[in-house]
């Protein structure tokens, strides 16, 4: 048995727990997969590198509304893939090398960590204990139990970005953000993409106007089979895959060359043995933490995707900063007064599909349900000067404000640069500005796209 001051399970956001506060402590970090976690290796970063390329392919495919004669011809997929991972893989390898070879106080264990007691973890034959343990084991792909699916074989976001060649046809199961982003990538590069969705809409947790518009656009761009379940999947001798579909009691079949499963993610609390340690989890399997990142077990902390359905890197990073501070405070013997609380009151998110979506705060429906007196303004990109330049006919900013305090309750944007445009609204909300202050107490560059935000604010 080896004892450490600090033991971190998972090298995604967990890796950033090791601040200089721990330079004089004995630290261990355990990783079962590739160093650096989901965001770096199979998540945010590679997917956005592919999305950027897909956006350019899509733009090239049709610029006729600008009087340009352009077309998208083809992609050198292996070159694209190798460019993406040629940048990412060395970062992961470098991160591991740094921790293993250059941090004298850190021991890196490669293997699956499993709690065998409240403060005891097994990795292979080793038993590790620590004064403080941080569980940062993230989440994994959820694969629905569809008969035949496992036998036929399928890809997930973990594997699909590394395939050797593009299929002619791809079926994407799901209609959430990963489906929307990766479907856009493969569709824009020339794969015939069909989405199969149990419900009617894409991005159904977004504000209704946003998910309606997104679904409208994706229905034009792709084959969309909605309100449908899959009863069986099989593959014939030629390699062609057949999906048996059921929709409103009627059956049909669909053939394809590749299946991409993007039907959600589940927390890695069960697989790390949270139950054995007595660590409390909620009904959905997420580890329960307090505002300081503490679990119910003394000396065990948790953060990131293993604790929350938010599943966002920026919130995991925020939690990591909070937990790093708090573990250091506890380790140095100062009292609970030195602990800082996380603030997840305003967590924005974006979907890097095409169109792009970004949101923060309440949806209109949530404001209605909560009985909050509110005002709504929808401002089309196409009614601003930059929107004219873009010939935009589908993008908009939707704002929801409290009708008495005039504080912004929610902001929802669909269209180009949504994830960038929303940042000033996040800032205004965070620092307590009214919509009038946000609109009038600063100058907006004319005729920038940010005028669509200005006009939305002025319209409240
Ligand atoms: C395709 C895709 C696109 C995404 N895009 C975005 C985006 O654009 N923006 C955004 O904010 N978020 C995005 N996310 C989500 C984001 O990647 C996660 O929220 C974030 O990486 C979570 O960090 P984490 O540290 O909690 O977990 P992870 O980064 O998953 O780290 C957990 C680590 O623990 C390891 N591990 C698990 N179990 C064990 C065990 N028992 N023993 C040892 N090691 C273990 C894992 O191998 C992993 O390396 C995306 C995710 C995916 C899948």
Q: What structural keywords apply?
A:
460 residues, alpha/beta, FAD/NAD(P)-binding domain, Enolase-like, domain 1, 3 domains, 7-stranded mixed β-sheet, 5-stranded antiparallel β-sheet, 14 helices, 30% helix, binds flavin-adenine dinucleotide
Q: What does it look like?
A:
The chain is an alpha/beta fold and 460 residues long. The protein has three domains: 2-139 and 266-338, FAD/NAD(P)-binding domain (3-Layer(bba) Sandwich), CATH 3.50.50.60; 149-263, 3-Layer(bba) Sandwich (FAD/NAD(P)-binding domain), CATH 3.50.50.60; 355-458, Enolase-like, domain 1. It has helices at 37-41, 44-61, 77-102, 149-152, 177-188, 208-221, 274-277, 313-331, 364-369, 385-390, 418-421, 423-430, 435-440, 451-458, and strands at 2-9, 27-31, 106-110, 113-117, 120-123, 126-135, 139-141, 169-173, 192-196, 223-225, 229-235, 241-247, 250-256, 258-261, 265-267, 300-302, 349-351, 357-361, 374-380, 396-402, 408-414. The strands form five sheets. Strands 1, 2, 3, 4, 5, 6 and 16 form a seven-stranded mixed beta sheet that branches. Strands 17-18-21-20-19 form a five-stranded antiparallel beta sheet, sandwiched between helices. Helix 2 packs antiparallel against helix 3 and helix 2 crosses helix 5. Bound molecules: flavin-adenine dinucleotide. Flavin-adenine dinucleotide binds at residues 9-14, 30-33, 37-39, 42-44, 47-48, 112-113, 136-138, 157, 178, 268, 271-272, 304-305, 311-314, 316, 352. The site of flavin-adenine dinucleotide (FAD) has 36 residues, from strand 2, helix 1, helix 2 and helix 8.
